[in-house]
Design brief:
By secondary structure, the protein is of the alpha+beta class. The chain has one domain (about 5-65). It is built from 1 helix and 4 strands. The longest helix is centred in the middle third of the chain and has 15 residues, at about 35-50. The radius of gyration is 14 Å and the shape is elongated.
Length: about 70
């Protein structure tokens, strides 16, 4: 079955940059910065889906921002 899009939830990791977790798949990536994370996510998806025919057509990174505001 062809998957059109694979979504990753990206969160800031206070200890080591960023963590991206795929929704519905066992793919978790950790990187020091968002540029490296993007490259690592692409490589991980290629490794998880070695057959281009079944590989998702798009990869979406949903970056979660946690802002704490004082009243």
């Amino acid at each position: 079955m062809l998957m059109n899009e694979l979504v990753f939830i990206v969160e800031k990791d206070p200890e080591s940059g960023y963590i991206a977790k795929a929704v519905g798949e066992a793919i978790v990536i950790q990187a020091d910065n968002i540029t490296i994370l993007r490259s690592m996510v692409r490589n991980a998806v290629r490794g998880h889906y070695p057959d281009p025919e079944t590989r998702p057509q798009r990869i979406r990174l949903q970056v979660s921002v946690d802002d704490l505001l004082a009243p």
